[in-house]
Amino acid sequence: MLTHKHLLGLEGYPREDLETILTTAFNFREILDRPIKKVPSLQGKTVVNLFFENSTRTRISFELAQKRLSADTVNFSASTSSLKKGESFKDTAQNIEAMKIDAVVMRHPDPGAPLHLTHHIDAVVINAGDGTHEHPTQAILDMMSLKEKFGYLEGLRVGILGDIAHSRVALSNIFGLKTMGADVMVCGPPTLIPPRLTELGVEVTYAVDELLDWADAVNVLRIQMERMGIGYFPSIREYRARFGITMERMARLKKELVIMHPGPMNRGTEIDSVIADSDQAIILDQVLNGVASRMAILFLLLGGNPENEGHES
């Protein structure tokens, strides 16, 4: 069990809870490698996926995790809901609560929306991304992927490259990695690095080659055009030349560097296709670990039956 009822973000989240989640996630990863991948751990539990923003990877990953645990899943799309007819957020939340559900997985464009939801319902709330604030389950699957690759997180050098200012993935990764004892350096155009970021205990550089020379692994972030106006950098071509993970840049390195990406990728912008598809990249491992880690989070927050955890149904 975890010390927090909800998973709203990783700022201040206990290291012991993160270690419990990661240990449980690796147990579920073994289950996903079996011929029969379903366990009855959350049989009888109902989870609502409440998405106010479009999502493919995160929603499918959560839905698959819920089904692998034998939970009942309800998908709620704000674009086709009564919210479009003028219903308030509070009314929507209370109507969902009246359906006697056990957990809500929520994505919302406004920072703090999952916390706001906890004021209106008694069910467990899991933040699947709230604006530019946090995306805790993505950071947990990233940490799982790093631990799987290296065997440890304490002292690991992890770079985060790209649009730091608009990235909820970056903030959750910083909080989680620092809590687990990793060293973190961020890199990107000065216009996309928030002020006072060093107060979170990370190093900042504006030179991508410095980052690559320093890091054991680099998490490459997407340029989020939809969240920014104009003028953050001159052009896509210049961004690729100065900050892109290109074949030429990687060829100059005198070491093996692990490459990560939370997706979706802008191939040819922040990363070359040949690098994304190479043995150095663990991007597809992140996808599989996303299901396992979200299974662990759901299992631990919903009080799953540990006797059923390792048995096939």
Explain this structure to me?
This protein is of the alpha/beta class and 313 residues long. The protein folds into two domains: 15-133 and 290-308, Rossmann fold (3-Layer(aba) Sandwich); 136-286, Rossmann fold, CATH 3.40.50. The chain is built from eleven helices and nine strands. The strands form two sheets. A five-stranded parallel beta sheet has the order 7-6-5-8-9, with helices on both faces. A four-stranded parallel beta sheet has the order 2-1-3-4. Helix 5 (136-150) packs across helix 11. The protein is globular.
Strand content: 5-15%
How many angstroms separate the termini? 23 Å
* CATH C-level category of the largest domain: Alpha Beta
Radius of gyration: 20 Å
**How many separate structural domains?**
2
Order of helices and strands: HEHEHEHEHEHEEHEHHEHH
